[in-house]
Amino acid sequence: MPGDDGLVLTAEEQSMLAGEQGPATAMCMRLIVGVARANGAERLVPIESAHADGCLYHGVAGLEFTERLVSLGARVRVRTTLNVGSLDLLHPGLVRADPEVAENGRRLMDAHVALGCEPIWSCAPYQSGHRPTEGSHVAWAESNAIAFVNSVLGARTDRYGDFIDIAAGVAGRVPYSGLHLTRNRAAALVLDFSAVPAALLDDDVAWPAIGALLGEFAGTRVAALTGLPGDLNDGGVTEDRVKALGATAASAGGVALFHVVGMTPEAPTLDAVLAPEATTVPVTAHDLRRARERLSTAATTSLDAVSLGTPHFSLSEFAALARELRAGPSFSSSVDVFVSTSRAVLAQAEARGYADTVRDAGGRILTDTCTYVTPVLNDGIRTVMTNSGKWAWYAPANLGIDTVLGSLAECVASARAGTVVRDERLWG
Amino acid sequence: MSGCGDDPVTLSGRSLHPGQANGVVLTLDEPLSFWGGVDPRGVIVDAHHPQRGSTVAGQVLAMRAGRGSSSSTAVLAELIRSGHAPAALLLAECDAILVIGALVAAEIYGTTLPIVQLAHDDLARLHTGTRAAVLAHTAPLAASVIATSR
Fold first, then answer.
1. Would you state the pLDDT for residue A417?
2. Does A60 touch chain B (CB under 8 A)?
């Protein structure tokens, strides 16, 4: 198991490491090189962009690290967008953070802006104007964004997170290892959905359920999915479904890359992505039902809140929600309805009238953060319905809340009725 | 402490992060996510974890792999800052998420938390409650764990 240090750095990288481009660059290179040595990488690779999630407050260490970079004069050298923070800077009344988180969370967000990052504050940067090109190397954090940029856009990132994300933005380099390497992007596992009825796959709820199954079967392995319908150029419907799939798979299993054969860019055919000795698992409607039920922990139909927009709502999701709300009754006064989105998408939703439609129905729109990473829901809330498999995966443990997974239409119907309404005909 | 009179066993591994530490071994039956799985005092709070209630603070923590969110990096760095981190980490599978936490703590607090990758079989030779001395070099990436037998 002991291995040699085979890492080779370019003259430019050696100069950065030696401090010739400033102490901040040197510090970031020490982190990148330290990870490269641990990974056994043979070299580094330049990146075209980064997406950093270290702006969510987890404690003093993260704040002191980021403020150290600022004090050393660090600036990102590639485009670096920011994930959600602990606060909604546009709607400060919605988040009930304690004083430490409010103060330090704000300082942490400010420090990231001071490094030259773009304050988009979104876990769906790919729907807020940051879409790397196919084949480009990037350093992205946030598990759903990692899965999306790898799988749907065909750019290449490994799993990055706090500290290494911003270090990569400053150094403009990452270890050439993991999912940056073509050989690690092949599918070791095939999930075949061809036996699942088309009507079931046309229900939005099927897609987070598929994601939960993918996470369960694949763990951290790369999988190919066959027998799934959809076209990524259909105006957002398929993209939003695959986004939900990937976010749930990343939460339930640590999936960072999956291929949907005939849909995602690296998988025009199964053969194009198949690893030698890959195994195939046929998926049944029963498997999907089981996955759907795993994401619903509530034992009753009583309902306190509805949470939409994890990952952040897209413009096409706002359009679908506005369609559901058109000409119908408002939400029940006993149900709090939250929609989390980015400020960029909110501006577009305002311009099209979707945001007012949501507010007129009684919904509240949250930006810059998310309802499961910071205190937004009232203390008395016990049962929450969501169309997000990721939210449903994390909320029981993070927030002590019972969840019900439903489609967007079921979430709206339930919020209006004040009780859980699900159409069981397809799922019975 | 048992095993004082026994011959210690020496295990060779691969250094993932340099440092030197001594402590009592805590072996975990399942991978642990620091984010959501460990409280600010280093106590395992993951309701599904077999070692729930054990404390990782000051222990030579042995587990097959890390698990879960990349936010574990920040949680480990925070545990190091507050003095509630393990004394050393012994893993069978390289985990960059944890390595970065140790790298950052070394940068801003000057602490050294050795992280060592051992073969699965060697990791299985370590038992909770025995003492271990961990030495991980920077280069050429060699590391050793000297543990008392049970």
1. 97
2. yes
